[in-house]
Amino acid sequence: MQTLFEKMRSHSVRDLSAGQRRVMDVIRPGLDFTRAEIAHAAGVPLQSVCGRVNELVTAGRLENGPRRICSRTGNPANPVRLPSKQLELLT
């Protein structure tokens, strides 16, 4: 049985490219992810993730979170997360 979040996610990703779906499969409500973290979790090259994340941010499907240290690289990075509006629907 699917949770409400899983139902919303499957409906909302139908019109995404395969690469964009891989990125969205990693994203979880209330958490943020750097591009390197997404690439590692999805098992795809970083350069593929960067383009897809930029597309998703431009489309309003993801938003930038506060700058923090990336758990993969140890460097400061700009993570992405679900937009606040989408999180409100899940709570």
Would you identify the regions where 5 or more consecutive residues have pLDDT less than 50? 87-91
Overall structural class, as computed from helix and strand content, comes to mainly alpha
* Sheet of most strands: 2 strands, antiparallel
| Mean pLDDT reading | 86
The proportion of strand residues reads 5-15%
Span of the ends, CA to CA: 19 Å
Helix-strand pattern, N to C? HHHHEEEEH
Helix percent band: 40-55%
Count of beta strands: 4
Total number of helical segments? Answer: 5
How does the overall form come out from the CA principal axes?
A: globular
Give, in spatial order, the strands making up the sheet with the most strands.
1-4
Radius of gyration: 13 Å
Polypeptide structure, described:
The chain is built from five helices and four strands. The protein is mainly alpha-helical. The chain has a two-stranded antiparallel sheet. The longest helix has 13 residues, at 46-58.
Entry summary:
The protein is 51% helix and 9% strand.
Key phrases:
mainly alpha, two-stranded antiparallel sheet, 51% helix, globular, two-stranded antiparallel ribbon
